[in-house]
Amino acid sequence: MRLQAIIIKKQRKCVLLSGREVLEVACGSGYWTEVIGEVAKSVLATDIDLSLISIAKSRCKHLSNVRFQIADAYTLNDVPSGFDAALGIWWWSHIPKKCVPIFLSALHSKLESKALVLFVDQLSYDGFVRRQDSDGNILEQRILPDGGSFTIVKNFPTKQDITDYLKNIAYDIRYTEYPDEMSWSVIYRKK
After folding, report:
1. Could you tell me the pTM of the whole model?
2. Could you tell me the domains of the chain?
C-alpha cells in the first residue's frame, strides 16, 4: 500500500483527518497544511521559521479554517490545547534523540485524550555525507548551490525506536513502511 493512499484519497483530499481540529507541527511551506485544510474542521499550523510561515500562509490564503502560529515544537508555548488530531510530516527525523520525549510531551499536552496523531518521514537513503554525534544522532551535511554547506540532524528511526517512544503514551499504534516511496508512517491514539 502506498503512503499517499493512507493520507490522501482522490484529488489530494486527506480523509484521515477529515472533520478534525488539527495541530500541525513544523508545517514548513504549507504543502500538507493546504491538503489537510481542504477537509479538516480547523488547522493550526506551527513552525519556528517566520519565512516558511509566510510561504504557507500564501499557499493557504483561500482556506478560512487554517491559522498559523510561530511556535517552537519542543515547547509549543502559547499554542492552545484541545485538538483532536495532530500531524507532523518530514519532522521526526530532525528531532535529536534525547529531545523526542520532550517533543512528544509538548505535543500531547495540546491534544485531547484519544486524539489521532500521524507522523510521516523518510527511510534511510544514500547520497549525503553523514556522521554520528556523541548522543547517537545522525548528522547530515547539505551542500548549497553556491558551494556553502550546513549540517542537519537526520535520524532514521526504526519501527522499534518509534514504538518504544510511544509505548507508554499511546495506543492503537500502526507503523507502516513504504519502501517504494522511501518513507514510513505511524498513526496512533494519544492515551
Report:
1. 0.91
2. 3-124+156-190 (3.40.50.150)
